[in-house]
UniProtKB/TrEMBL annotation, chains A, B:
Family classification: Belongs to the CinA family.
Stored Pfam families: CinA, CinA_KH, MoCF_biosynth
NCBIfam families, per the entry: cinA_nterm, PncC_domain, PRK00549.1
Identification of the protein by name: Putative competence-damage inducible protein
PANTHER family hit by this protein: NICOTINAMIDE-NUCLEOTIDE AMIDOHYDROLASE PNCC, NMN AMIDOHYDROLASE-LIKE PROTEIN YFAY
MoaB/Mog domain sequence ranges: 4-170
Gene3D superfamilies: 3.30.70.2860, CinA-like, MoaB/Mog-like domain
Length: 427, 427
């Protein structure tokens, strides 16, 4: 089953909104075993939208639209798609009631009511986070059409809860997908280690790289969910065996999610002392709801005097080794652990660039120290390959810090040299 | 002149890479007065790419491709586009030399050399951040084609420095664009205030909303740059007059850029005390290169005891008013200013959700306090409209903090109630 996405919205063509919906829909389709061959974006223009819909219906099995379901005059997706597919729009009473409820007694304008007009005979997807419902239907030619709202906080739950089940139930097969997350190994290297697993047609295993990390997705297709799960299981176990301590989590979203969960499970806490990352590590930890159980305190000590004042880094250490040194990182980690009373203290210091580098301490040099009670572990990030910017470098430094905490929690050895220089191919 | 973007790359169709290139190219085209009518994404598949290129050349004046210029076997953009446009690929000696230099004497494989093969007669765009050059040419039918590499850190400088000048020089007109950035007013409200300016064909003024902020872009087209600039000037001044203190900057990228620049210009410093934002404010300040001149210290005081220990927030204040209160925010701001010796101290405390809300202190309630020497200013964010998630709420809290510093620096009055609930239309 091959799909195509049409994103509708002039704001996307002006570039002030980044199209994250397409990536989200693509990932969910891929998990569900649906291949995506094209995606395209058109503005709020009925002629161009009509042409795009006709093209999609001529070449793809499934058409998914995002955006243009709302109440305003430039929300034209339903009208245009229904006309292209030869369907009439009819009033869906339940959706109208839900919209009325949403506005709690205020008088509904015609434009609001328009949102309850849906293609005749369609399956309606309730909007649990807004007013415009989505829907799915099959054209006379047997093509499947799914329409979703544009705002991500409306689209994401509707896609997961209603649209994907709608698409897969028609498949008469259960699809189960598992994610094996890896930090510290390049995608190319992992692909070589597991190429035999990637060659298997069911379950499939595929590698993906993203911002200095990578993961393997294992997808099985079977008659029911239990059978599909059972097919994934041995492949996931084999991946864990081959990739060892570089696997940081199964079916999690991020290093910070793993770290917060593992700290909470063990009743442990962490405190952060950041220089070059400037608060990014604390921010990522506190991105996770419930972080307050495991994180009580962080310091951003950007100036040398503040490292001394807040963390007790000896002036002598700063003078002798400089702010960017393993000695300073260690003193920061020890200082924050002691002052906070946390089980883990982490210190980060480095040259994030673009300026400020020297021959001895180039842009990209970062030292991380983890004080975990057993002593202090140091990780060094050395610049390798080309400079990918301040944001990337700070992100990799925070990820390495999270990985050090994770390895300590899981009782694994450290990796001395951070493998952060996995460059993407050019072009 | 109407353009179309084709993004090439199977990774984009799997959804693990969000397509940020398209938004970036779209914005630059829009600044240059080029309208974008379509964008689409195809995988590394020559047949589908060929069909997409043929369609684009049949309906658009300009085709811009991103991705697929690299050395590997699935990098097929140049071959496919050149064939569709009836051009031969020939070796470009200078590009080959640059690639050889890049690899500093290592023996070049055929695949690396392939990157120097470019359409006959094209204008070559040097890749200042990688190996694969880009290029621009005109087809026999008078259509303009531009090919750019996929990685954003290669694409962005090439687009700005070579591709946009290449496209606009052909226009025989200078285009100048100014950005007026606004915080604290909704897009709809601003659009009403300036609708007469938006109706003018040259210079144009248009409003854009993005993550709780909005901006107005003024674009003028004239015979030369000086003339275009002179046309923008009175419109920008009029916008400043009508929008007053809600304009936080001209031709800047973000609130944090404005704040760091204005602090530096006045030789002032700021220190941060964060609870619910968990380091995000410090992170955003230190995203700006050179922040170390104006930011020396930040504290993330997630637990009550830490607020008392690090910032001296009285236990009595926490007991009587709670951690989420104007009193605690004020004590945090006073405490961080005093301990850091900075000119400005800012405190943030709130309920970021999704859990942790009560009837009295619901999810979304945030208090911000700024201590600037003259006293303390308080801003309250009250939940309004629907909850848009922890990330959005924390982002708005950090933006409000930056806006308070900015207003104080610019000698403006505060706004008591943060206008953070500007909801985007549904659908």
């Amino acid at each position: 089953m091959n799909a195509e996405i049409i994103s509708v919205g002039t704001e996307l063509l002006l570039g002030h909104t980044i199209n994250t919906d397409t990536a989200f829909v693509a990932r969910e389709l891929s998990s569900a075993g649906v291949g995506l061959l094209y995606s395209c974006t058109v503005g709020d223009n009925p002629e161009r939208l009509k042409a795009a819909v006709e093209l999609a219906l001529s070449r793809s099995d499934v058409l998914i639209t995002t955006g243009g379901l709302g109440p305003t005059g430039d929300d034209l997706t339903k009208e245009t798609v229904a006309a292209a597919a030869g369907k009439k729009l009819v009033l869906h009473e339940e959706s109208l009631r839900r919209i009325e409820e949403y506005f709690k007694g205020r008088v509904l304008g015609e434009t609001q009511k328009k949102q309850a007009m849906l293609p005749e005979g369609c399956t309606v997807f309730r909007n649990d986070c807004g007013t415009a419902p989505g829907c799915g239907f099959t054209t006379d030619a047997g093509k499947r059409v799914v329409m979703l709202p544009g705002p991500p906080f409306e689209l994401i739950p509707m896609l997961k809860n209603y649209a994907i089940p709608y698409l897969t139930q028609a498949e008469n097969a259960a699809i189960v997908s598992r994610i094996v997350r890896v930090f510290g190994l390049g995608e190319g290297y992992v692909a070589e280690l597991i190429d035999d697993l990637c060659a298997c047609p069911n379950p499939t295993a595929a590698t993906y790289a993203k911002e200095g990390e990578m993961f393997v997705r294992v997808t099985a297709r079977a008659a029911d969910e239990a059978a599909a799960e059972a097919m994934c299981e041995p492949v996931v176990r084999e991946l864990q065996k081959r990739l060892g301590g570089f696997v940081y989590g199964l079916d999690v979203e991020s290093l910070e999610e793993t770290v917060v969960k593992e700290l909470a499970a063990r009743g442990k806490t962490v405190a952060t002392a950041e220089s070059c990352t400037g608060g990014l590590l604390a921010k990522r930890i506190t991105d996770i709801p419930g972080a307050s159980d495991v994180f009580h305190m962080g310091c951003v000590t950007y100036a040398n005097e503040i490292k001394t004042m807040l963390l007790g880094v000896p002036e002598e250490t700063l003078r002798q080794y400089g702010a960017v040194s393993p000695q300073t990182a260690e003193a920061m980690a020890r200082g924050i652990k002691e002052r906070s009373g946390a089980d883990y203290g982490i210190g980060i210091t480095g040259v994030a660039g673009p300026g400020g580098g020297t021959e001895e301490k180039p842009v990209g040099l970062v030292y991380l120290a983890l004080c975990d009670g057993d002593g202090v572990k140091i990780r060094e990030m050395r610049p390798a390959g080309r400079y990918r910017g301040r944001g990337y470098l700070r992100g990799m430094a925070a990820s390495n810090a999270l990985d050090m905490i994770r390895r300590s929690l899981q009782g694994l050895g450290g990796v001395e040299q951070a493998a952060y220089s996995q460059m993407k191919k050019g072009g």
